[in-house]
Amino acid sequence: MKYSLAIYGAPYASQAADTAFSFAEAAIARDHEIYRLFFYLDGVHNASSLATPPQDESNLPARWRELVEAHNIDAVVCIAAGLRRGVLDEVEQQRYEKTGSNLNDGFTLSGLGQLIDAGTHSDRLITFGA
Amino acid sequence: MSETKSFLIVNRKAPYASAFAKEALDVALIAAAFGQQLSILFMDDGVYQLLKQQDPSGINQKNSSQTLPMLDMYDIKDIYVEAASLQARNLHTEDLLIPVQVIDSQAAAGLMDRHNILLNF
After folding, report:
1. Where are the domains of chain A?
2. Rg of chain B's alpha carbons, rounded to an integer?
3. Which of A20, B63, B65, B72 is deepest in the core (most CB within 10 A)?
């Protein structure tokens, strides 16, 4: 089956993103396809390259990046939600003249249309963190 | 877009205390702009999103209920409210800013069953 996951919870602050990750891993292990990961609301923080948890704690943003790159998953961060919360790529950094950018490798900023598209093109769209 | 699938957006949270209310409405408007079949259900604390005369200026926020009349402009007509959620909060349809269809819990479950894609906020 084709799954898309909509993730609304931030790493560390909420269990949602962790559960979503476990789900994604399990789906892949069973040869399902992950059509898209869509990060919305506080979920955008899963795509930050700056998260620096202690060594003995899970580093969920790093784990997402590894998963996305290993399986070539379309990992989209809602641009409006990201901008509000301070998750920017280099293009937005330039546009808004910010001191840095933090969108991790493997992720792209895009619009809510990608969430709608994920819904219409997947067999299941599952939300995490609401 | 491919096949015709229907979306149901379920709003369960009060406005202003979190971003869910506002960002859920953004999804509704985008879904409608993309020509998708869409229903919206307000239940639990989500019914507070519909109250008339909201004024969050004192807490430095925009009045998100001002977006609600836009739903009709975007041709989103299927807006439901769960009766028990209103009753538990001592609210009535007269307190609500836009026209809605009040349904019981069983009908709300039926709504979730009938729509292909559930977005829960």
Report:
1. 2-128
2. 14
3. A20
Q: For domain B6-120, give the CATH superfamily.
A: DsrEFH-like (3.40.1260.10)
Q: Tokens 């930050």 correspond to what residue?
A: A48
* Tens digit of each residue's pLDDT (9 = 90 or more) over B66-100: 999 999 999 999 999 999 999 999 999 999 999 99
In tens, the pLDDT along A53-111 reads: 999 999 999 999 999 999 999 999 999 999 999 999 999 999 999 999 999 999 999 99
Residue A40 has its nearest CB partner, among B1, B23, B118, at B23
pTM recorded for the entire structure: 0.96
**DSSP letter string, A75-99:** EEEEHHHHHHHT---HHHHHHHT-S
Name the interface residues of B facing A (CB cutoff 8 Å). Answer: 1-3, 5, 7, 12-13, 19-20, 23, 26-27, 30-31, 34, 36, 116-121
* CATH entry, A2-128, from 3.40.50.2300, 3.40.50.11750, 3.30.200.20, 3.40.1260.10: 3.40.1260.10
Distances (CA, A) of B107 to A105, B83, B101: 44, 10, 11
Q: Hey, which residues does B82 pair with through a beta bridge? A: B103
Pairing assessment for the beta strands A107-110 and B117-120 based on DSSP bridges: unpaired
**What count of CB pairs under 8 Å joins A to B?**
53
